[in-house]
Amino acid sequence: MTNHELPKFDLPIDFVVTDEIPVALLQNYARFPCKIKACLFILCTRGEVRATVNLTHLTIRTGSFITLLPGSFIQVESISSDIHLYVVGYSSEFMARSNYLKLVVDDFHSILQHPALSLPPRITRLYEQAYRLLMRTAAIGRIENDREVLTPLLSLSLQTCLRLYHHYVPRWDGELTRDQEICREFVVLLLHHYAREHTVAFYASACGVTLPHFCSAIKRASGRTALSLINNFLIMNAKELLSTSRKPVKEIAFELGFVNPSHFNRFFREHTGMTPQTYRNS
Questions:
Q1: How do residues 40-73 score in pLDDT, each as one tens digit?
Q2: Which part of the chain is CATH 1.10.10.60?
Q3: Which residues contact 83 (CB under 8 A, 6 or more apart)?
Q4: Where are the CATH 2.60.120.280 domain residues in the chain?
């Protein structure tokens, strides 16, 4: 099975909050690894799920808070019949327009390495109440496609998530492996240079390591290749520019560092299945 044949999970609307996640749905992700395109914040209040997320083996049980960033891979290994999950989710399209990586850059590696946190009972109950309140608000206000509401709500979701990571996950200082240091430096460099530098060799040189060492370090630290992370940044920002500006596609191509607009068109189509103009019109 190729990567292109992996089942992909996304949301048909910008936002969803629910606690109606049937076991049958979760079992769909037990046959083989699944690529999650949406961003999901999940709270478990009952039962148990064993799964692998981005090569990390997890046991999800009461009090587990799970963060799945877009592009995460998950394979469910076992599910108890009494499982109960609260889920807040944002679609891949909405996430692409939000440029969310700017908010999580300092904790990107931490979230990848620790997709599930174990919360104490008191905090679990507080978050369960928050999910219920959000469910009632969504039911009354029909906010699932209201971006004026969802943009600050996503920011709040991410900030809340990061506060949990800051409190329950050991911080970077003094605890990074060399691979983690290289990965963090790479993400910071990527934020500054992705629109001008598209080659892995540039980032390896900027980090002061050989290209093979750099590629291996990024793969070990993040579970992804350096090139896939560069491409993800480019596609995310291309979608944002196509959706929020009236700039011609040619101008966007130049802005993202493509000397030849036709190269940008091929690149965008290869990664999205459509041309930039088709995406803009969709």
A1: 999 999 999 999 886 678 999 999 999 998 877 7
A2: 178-281
A3: 21, 23, 26, 44, 46, 47, 48, 49
A4: 3-168
pTM: 0.66
In the block, residue with structure tokens 């692409």: 96
CATH class, domain 3-168, is mainly beta
Distance CA 94, CA 148 (A): 12
Integer Cα distance of 222 and 115 in angstroms: 12
The CATH code that applies to domain 178-281 is 1.10.10.60
Could you report how far apart the first and last alpha carbons of the chain are, in Å? 30
- Kindly state the tokens that stand for 259: 């000397």
**Rounded alpha-carbon distances, angstroms, from residue 44 to 20, 41, 78, 86, 128:** 12, 10, 15, 6, 9
Q: Are 130 and 185 in contact (CB under 8 A)?
A: no
Look up residue 2 and give its amino acid: T
